[in-house]
UniProtKB/TrEMBL annotation, chains A, B:
Coiled coil: none annotated. It is found in: Cytoplasm. This is Glucose-6-phosphate isomerase. Signal peptide: none annotated. The keyword RNA-binding does not apply. Pathway: Carbohydrate degradation; glycolysis; D-glyceraldehyde 3-phosphate and glycerone phosphate from D-glucose: step 2/4. Residues 26-193 form the Glucose-6-phosphate isomerase prokaryote domain. It catalyses: alpha-D-glucose 6-phosphate = beta-D-fructose 6-phosphate.
Length: 213, 213
């Protein structure tokens, strides 16, 4: 390889897949054990509905990482566990000052964001909505619609994903539930625990210093 | 500012604009003087058709740059100067190891790519085509259709643009012309001059070292 070759990938909106991808993974319901409020409903769904694919990602990763970018497509099935909408596992970037850009393609959903010190933001996403997830924000996608929810994404190739930050605080602070009239509402997650002042201060310091790890 | 706030920007496919952008610029025909093969046709177009807007960009740039990303929308008008299709100025990233991702939204066009040592690649782009421009490639967009050509783009916020690399070599090596049957063809640019072996070697060394400036 002299130079990395340009490539093109065609997005199939109907299938919710990107052709010519270098990677493809699926998450099944069982992969999301422990993330939902209603554990009984989760077990019932798993036993009656089977261990279905709840979201999948087709992505392209560059062969070299320095300064480079990853992009791909996320397809989320519609559904609820009890009254809670299907969600992705969620993460903060392992290199926390890295952002992510999502672009809604089909269906309706939202990005649930949480700052290290527990502020919540919600960005609703429909077709042609760009959602910018700034550095340092924990983020999770939620399908609030009755159809599949499909988004394109891109982020720096050296960002990585840290899933533990959510697990360690008992989940994200808010949950996205059906509001009983066809829409969604946010409710507190009773199990949520604030991150330590030390953890927050470290990330704030990093941000103010403009540190790139 | 404690943390940078998440934002959403709605893409208007029909207008070819992104709402809630932080920046907006337009390029007029006169801004592209000297880029086309047929200078007489360029002058005639300018004098008869007026100094029209040939492409415009609505974009969002983050307040901090470290590790961050810029995104936006490019709308290119359809047209030709003589037999040469409307194009953008084209650039390599000032930090040359930075990539760029384009996503076709409307119309038809292509990305004309040139490696530092003069290899040409062409990626055709239609709606839902993702085009990955790897680090180190000079790139220019060309509208080969009869309608507007609209693409979303994203790239690292510290990438910058170097336009001189094209000017110094007498333009890009190939030109994209009408083929007389409604399609396009590539032809040599007689004015093109190869970059020095030193320039190419420096960029190759940088790539193999994985240098992030």
């Amino acid at each position: 390889m002299k130079w990395v070759e340009p490539i093109s990938c065609q997005v199939d909106l109907q299938q919710g897949l990107m052709h010519n991808a270098s990677g493809h993974y699926q998450k099944r319901l069982s992969d999301l054990a422990g993330l939902y409020a209603d554990d009984a409903a989760f077990k019932a769904e798993l036993s009656h509905g089977g261990d279905r694919v709840v979201y999948e990602v087709t992505e392209w990763r560059p062969p070299a990482r320095s300064g480079d970018m990853i992009f791909g497509l996320t397809r989320m099935s519609p559904g609820k566990i009890g009254e809670e909408f299907y969600l992705t596992r969620g993460h903060i970037h392992a290199v926390a000052d890295r952002p992510e850009i999502y672009y809604g393609q089909r269906g309706e959903g939202l990005m649930l964001l949480e700052s290290p010190d527990g502020e919540t933001r919600i960005v609703e996403i429909n077709a042609q909505t760009v959602c910018y997830v700034p550095p340092y924000w924990i983020h999770r996608s939620v399908n609030t619609g009755s159809d599949e929810f499909v988004m394109l994404f891109s982020y720096p190739a050296d960002a990585g994903q840290d899933y533990d930050i959510i697990a360690h605080s008992g989940g994200m602070r808010r949950r996205i539930m059906a509001d009983g009239t066809g829409g969604w509402k946010q409710v507190d997650n009773a199990a949520w625990q604030a991150r330590s002042a030390q953890t927050v201060a470290k990330l704030l310091d990093q941000q103010s210093a403009g540190v790139t790890l």
